[in-house]
Amino acid sequence: MIEGIFGWLTGIVTAIINTLGYWGIMAASALEAACIPLPSEIIFPFSGYLVSTGHFTLWAVMFWGMLGQLAGSLLAYYVGWFGGIPLLRKYGKYILIKEKEIDHSHEWFERHGEAAVFFGRLLPVVRTFISLPAGIARMNIWKFIIYTALGCFPWLLALTYTGVLLGVHWMVIKKFFLEFKVFVIAGLLILLAWWIWNHLKKKNGNNSDNRNNGNKAKNQQI
Q: What's the rounded Cα separation, in Å, for the pair 36 and 29?
């Protein structure tokens, strides 16, 4: 199933780039960074292949790709900034997110946001969505831009140059990244399951404590 979706996305991405050229690279890159999963593992190896044919140049691909990444990342960041906090404060309790955890996330990004954004940009799946929590936590905008650029550059360069080296066989990279994505997704699901279990455990513990305290109060009144 995942391979079928990947093949479908490959057709969309290659059509956009073939039709729009460098503008297509920027558009596809911006969509990926704005949480729309057009994989950079297709965009840039294919662009690298076109570099090998002389249709593009390496540094032009990097320029337009980086421009797209920054534009899409900033869009997702501001969606998180303006929409994330109010929604989480209003509805977070329904998905086990408490007020104090929202405040803690802000403090955590203040201390570790640079590393989270930088390394997040180097991981499939995570890189597509890292801008949203950065915006929700209201990470300093200039730090966000700098570490987004620093994290994106080596990733895009590696993918593009791999496409240059592979040439017409650039699609062989697909199998590797499919397997890697499955591994990353599995890891994220395990973390999510642990987070939900931990919160439910705390919630049940708090409810039990409240019931015990209520019983003690009743006994004292009697």
A: 10
On whether the CB atoms of residues 44 and 163 are closer than 8 A, the answer is yes
Binned at pLDDT 50, 70 and 90, residue 169 comes out as confident
Instruction: Collect all residues with Cβ–Cβ distance below 8 Å to 222 and sequence separation of at least 6.
Output: none
For the chain, give the longest Cα–Cα distance.
89
What's the sign of the alpha-carbon dihedral 192, 193, 198, 202? positive
pLDDT tens digits for 119-136?
777 776 667 778 878 887
Q: How many CA atoms lie within 13 A of 138 on its CB side?
A: 10
Q: For the chain, what percentages of helix, strand and coil (3-state, to nearest 5) are there?
A: 90, 0, 10
Tokens of 101: 């955890």
